[in-house]
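2024-03-11 09:14:02 DEBUG pipeline.ingest accepted 1 chain
2024-03-11 09:14:02 DEBUG pipeline.ingest length=122
2024-03-11 09:14:03 DEBUG pipeline.predict start
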Amino acid sequence: MPLSFRELAGQAGAEAGFSGFSPDACLINCYRPGARMSLHQDRDEHDLGAPIVSVSLGLPAIFLFGGLKRSDKPQRFRLEHGDVVVWGGPARLAFHGVAPLADCEQGLMGRQRINLTFRRAR
């Protein structure tokens, strides 16, 4: 992973109260209009004490952030190009996802959304 990515995620984690966060993995998802990600938990990592840091690029998206049960009604947050979201602690295992992307265009990225998700996998 490029050092600049690691530093960005570490700084975002520190600003959210997770000092010392140093990711060792970056998941990259590309979404096109109509794509979505159903509610899920990020629970495969060995260190669930580390936060998740998510960076949005391109098309806006509606981020769904629920509770610890899939049946908990999620809150909806509009994420724009450049937005960063950090969650951890008691919310680390919250169900989350992305509503279907609207068909539009973003100046820099065109008709796509790239999401970088940083985590401590090992």
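2024-03-11 09:14:41 DEBUG pipeline.report The chain has one helix and eight strands.
2024-03-11 09:14:41 DEBUG pipeline.predict end
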